Amino acid sequence: MSSSSSSALEMEIFQYIDAHQSDFIKDLKEWVAVESDSVQPHLRKEVMHMMTLAADRLATLGATVNLVNLGSHQLPDGQVLPLPPVLFGELGKDPQNPTVCFYGHVDVQPAKKEDGWDTDPYTLTEVDGNLYGRGATDNKGPVLAWINAVETFRALKLAMPVNFKFVIEGMEEAGSLGLEKLLEEENQSFFSDVDYIVISDNLWLSNKKPALTYGSRGNACFFVEVECGSKDLHSGTFGGIIHEPLLDLIALLDSLVDSTGHILIPGIYDSVAALTEEERNLYESIEFDLEEHRNNCGVKKFLYGTKEEILLHLWHYPSLSIHGIEGAFHEPGIKTVIPAKVIGKFSIRQVPNMDLSVVKKQVVEHLEGVFSKRNSPNKLKVSMPLGVKPWLADFNDLLYEAARRAIKTVFGEDPDFIRDGSTIPVARMFQTVTQKSVMMLPIGAADAGEHSQNEKISRHNYIEGTKLFAAFFLEISKLHRDLHETSHTETVN
User: Fold this and answer.
1) How large a percentage of the chain has pLDDT more than 70?
2) What is the model's pTM?
3) Which of 156-170, 179-193, 207-221, 477-491 has the lowest mean pLDDT?
4) Considering only CA atoms, which of 238, 203, 202, 129 is closest in space to residue 463?
5) For residues 135, 141, 147 and 153, what is the CA-based torsion angle, rounded to 10 degrees?
6) Looking at residues 72-100, what average pLDDT do you find?
7) Would the pLDDT of 493 be above 80?
8) Which of 133, 105, 167 is nearest to 26 (CA)?
């Protein structure tokens, strides 16, 4: 296809998307209205309903849809709930086309207006060009944008440039229960002809400049439990004569990280990869406004004062965060009690080359060493209930080049190549199980507020994101064909 005919095709596609903005926003409004919160058991039926809506939407495109039953799971209180099915969809089987699999989720985090929302979280509301609602950016908006891009080719009666496969789930916010096992079972069948996997479930680094994500940190979550006896005690009767578990716990938590954010656990940095010149150059070229980022998160000051230092400590180095204490009195007012047992909760966001088993050993040895110096008779128990490895992709891969070109076409500039400081288990899960190329292609801006009050996606990002996906279909098709033609020619010669 010549560049002029390609440009004309893109123009036709983009004009259609612009003309149907209202329809696309109406679709998003209908999806946001479903309270598909996978965390709260009483809303499980809403998640089921949302999966049916997504399946129906794909079926209208002509896709073959299969809702795969995952069975049920038991909650800590003994209640048994059905797991939402995972949606597998297929559209197109042209052997000349590459096959692109898109992953997304249609469940959401809990949200209530009284939590601090300015609008009803389940009524999509447009204010100053922003579309506010739970799931608008995480992840219903991007899922619909991808579907809308596919629908555009169908509506214009254009040949599909790629074969599409879809994996859409309803338990991402609750840990993607059952997904990895299903991927393993389907690896030799559903994924056998997949060439590339695209995930759009994260954000840009900037409010305005697009980004491509090639890595994320892992997460090792820890519980540190200190127990004194079988019951809570009165502080007037026992205060000053016993070893209080909460004092032990605070000393343990205080030993983990210093005031500069440096982790104090011996050996924790030993496996962190040396910073390469290529990575350093990437950081220098990234557009990152410290003031904008500070305003987005609502804090007065960061631990570090330069862009490079901030990005290094978000992506290249591990971090340790303390999340809370279970068992301590936390309600309004005063309760003069000495709790019998307290559990501190913290996590370490680990980076590539850090081994989870080694990290766990280092944490346990450090905490046991600190505890022993206190000469406390209390019982100490350290556990790691959750461990997720980091993910890293090759940003020189064909998949990233196709996305870079598509972003340049739609937004008029090259994207930043970024990592994500958070943990995105599905990216590593798909890459490990399928051994395919995996890319994260976000369309939400840094200020989208995923998981927070007033979550949003701007009208601009939602519509231009739809164009981006459509342009990406054309680019990956062209680059894939060029690669295979070159390989064929070299084989013949």
Assistant:
1) 97
2) 0.87
3) 477-491
4) 129
5) 170
6) 95
7) no
8) 133
Asked if 169 is an active-site residue, the reply is no
pLDDT at 276: 86
Q: Which helix (H) or strand (E) holds 401?
A: helix 398-411
83-102: average pLDDT = 97
The total of other beta-carbon atoms located within 10 Å of residue 163's CB is 21
- Identify the active-site residue in 35, 46, 90, 107: 107
Find the helix or strand (DSSP H, E) in which 73 lies. Answer: strand 72-74
3-class SS of residue 2:
coil
Angle at CA 210, nearest 5°, toward 205 and 211? 60
> Which pair of structure tokens corresponds to residue 271?
């496996």
Report pLDDT for 255: 98
Residue in the structure block whose two tokens are 């943990």: 423
Q: Report whether pLDDT(343) > 80.
A: yes
* pLDDT of res. 287: 86
Concatenate the DSSP letters of all residues of 135-163 into one string.
Answer: TTTTTHHHHHHHHHHHHHHHHTTPPPSSE
Is 284 designated active site? no
| Maximum C-alpha span of the chain | 90
| Tokens linked to 367 | 């905490």
Q: Which two tokens stand for residue 218?
A: 């892992």
CA distances in angstroms from 335 to 86, 227, 232, 344, listed in the order given: 47, 19, 11, 19
Tokens of 250: 């605070």
pLDDT at 384 over 80: yes
Backbone φ and ψ for 64, nearest 5 degrees, come out as -80, 125
State the residue for tokens 């629908």. 151
Which tokens sit at 345? 């909760």
Per the document, the length of the chain is: 493
In tens, the pLDDT along 145-170 reads 999 999 999 999 999 999 999 999 99
Residues contacting residue 141 through CB under 8 Å, at least 6 positions apart: 28, 131, 135, 443, 444, 457, 462, 465
Name which of 99, 153, 95, 157 is nearest 476 in CA terms.
99
The per-residue pLDDT for 5 is 60
Q: Is 276 helix (H, G, I), strand (E, B) or coil?
A: coil
CB 306 within 8 A of CB 288: no
Catalytic one among 172, 195, 248, 420?
172
pLDDT tens readout for residues 127-136: 999 999 999 9
Structure tokens at 402: 């196709």
Work out the end-to-end distance of the chain between its first and last CA atoms, rounded to an integer number of angstroms.
25
Q: Tokens 């992709």 — which residue?
A: 393
